[in-house]
Amino acid sequence: MQWHVLGMFAPSFVTGSLIVRFGVPRILLIGTLLLTGTVLVANLGTSLAHFWAALVLLGVGWNFLFVGGSALLSTVHSEAERGKVQGVNDLIIFTLVAIGSLMAGQLLHHLGWEALNLAMLPLILLVALATLWFVLKTKSQLASPVSGPPEP
């Protein structure tokens, strides 16, 4: 577990710099790739090495998505709304984390190890598709000319 926690928080020292260099969408997509790698490694075996690698991938993937998502969130509100928006975001995220923690044992019992890991894939895909949609929408907005008054 210590490697998972380290994977969640240690990259925070460089994730911001990576976002500045490569952009939020790339970091989010890399996060989804890392989480997909988590699913693959976790389902390849149940040795200590598999668990260790999967937990590290899970932690770093979570970090990229959390920090990237927080950076993206900071672009959609005014300064006056900042505290409320961040508070609601944190409430939603950590409520879902708590629910996930409480459900983990039941999900493992009912689905089994492999199915539980595979169940992450549709959610990871949803995040990747939302990120790609955001990129396409942003590019189309930048490409379209700003409509102003017609020229005489």
Q: Please give the share of residues in helix.
A: over 70%
Which runs of at least 5 residues are low in confidence (pLDDT < 50)? none
Number of strands: 0
**Quick one: biggest sheet?**
none
Cα distance, first to last residue? Answer: 68 Å
Q: Count every helix, treating DSSP H or I runs of 4 or more residues as helices.
A: 7
Q: Kindly state the mean pLDDT as a whole number?
A: 92
Assembly state (oligomeric): single chain
SSE blueprint:
Layout: H1 2-9, H2 12-22, H3 24-44, H4 48-73, H5 82-111, H6 113-118, H7 120-143
Summary of the model, kept short:
The chain is mainly α and 152 residues long. Helix content is 83%, strand content 0%.
Structure description:
This protein has 152 residues and is mainly alpha-helical. The chain has helices at residues 2-9, 12-22, 24-44, 48-73, 82-111, 113-118, 120-143. The chain contains seven helices and no strands. α2 packs across α3 (24-44) and α3 runs antiparallel to α4 (48-73). The N and C termini lie far apart (68 Å). The mean pLDDT is 92.
